[in-house]
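Reopening this ticket.

The earlier resolution said the output was attached, but the attachment link was broken on my side. Pasting everything inline this time so it's all in one place.
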Amino acid sequence: MTLLAGRRVLLVEDESLVAMLAEDMLLDLGCEVAIAMRLNKALDLVQSGSFDLAVLDVNLGDAHSYPVADLLNERGTPFLFATGYGQQGLEGSYRNVPVLQKPYQAEPLEHLLVRLLTSEVAPLLDCSRDLPPSCRCQDAQAGGNRFRADQVR
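Inline output:
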């Protein structure tokens, strides 16, 4: 049994096949998963329920998931962003939020979720500072497919 077993995870992903793949990975980790494929659905889920963690695709068609991130942050729910653009794909005030490089891979997903649960993470959204991410599981300079779990300096 892992630390993630029984954790309620919100997955916000607008691509059907990608959402199914990520859901399968989360279920394999023992998580309970709620999926939202649109911004309004994600906001409704956060407002009406409670989650232990969240995985947010940054780009949701013609919208961004930042309003969901803001609401999760207000509620103290740890979350990460998933994007194919890496840290550079985030707006400035969100740059210290952990990023999972897409396409989803099970090992980096598990690593980041466990880290969110076990780390003392000060407010993820702090507009007064522009800090680097505390962890990057994909080293873009090493080809983008090499797993890294060390601190970024």
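Reporter confirms the inline version is readable. Residues 127-153 have pLDDT under 50 and may be disordered. Helices lie at 16-28, 39-48, 66-75, 106-118.
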